[in-house]
């Protein structure tokens, strides 16, 4: 809001996992839990991500996201974010409950992944101590 009088707009990007050298390097040291959670969605091409972010920035959109997961994330985290149109604001209001319900299923799945990994680590540590 501070830069709005100067015709400066901000776009917040929610990029998904993107097939870049940095992502490949990250995957080499990523904890198992994080890798398994990350695998629940697809990896995007850098050109696709860049094209969408630039398009949204040019259009003056505050949020830029890719795919349905990204759209849901940007809607769920909109809070006091400005909207580009009344339609965008109404979509956020109408879909908030549905998206929160879907997000709870995601969170349950992610919790299950973390719990399984913890149990697997505990089992491995027990085996290592007895060996």
From TrEMBL:
Domain of life assignment: Eukaryota
GO biological process: 3-keto-sphinganine metabolic process; sphingolipid biosynthetic process
Gene Ontology terms: cellular component: endoplasmic reticulum membrane
MF terms (GO), sorted A to Z: 3-dehydrosphinganine reductase activity
Coiled coil segments of this chain: none
The protein, known as: KDSR
Organism: Cervus elaphus hippelaphus
């Amino acid at each position: 809001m501070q830069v709005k009088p100067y015709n400066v707009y901000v776009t917040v990007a929610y990029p998904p996992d993107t097939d870049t050298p940095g992502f490949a390097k990250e995957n080499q040291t990523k904890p198992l839990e994080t890798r398994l959670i990350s695998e629940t969605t697809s990896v995007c091409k850098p050109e696709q991500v860049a094209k969408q972010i630039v398009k949204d920035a040019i259009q003056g959109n505050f949020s830029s996201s890719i795919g349905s997961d990204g759209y849901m994330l940007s809607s769920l985290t909109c809070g006091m974010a400005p909207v580009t149109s009344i339609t965008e604001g109404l979509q956020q209001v109408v879909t908030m409950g549905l998206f929160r319900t879907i997000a709870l299923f995601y969170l349950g799945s992610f919790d299950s992944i973390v719990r399984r990994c913890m149990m697997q680590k505990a089992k491995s540590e027990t085996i290592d101590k007895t060996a």
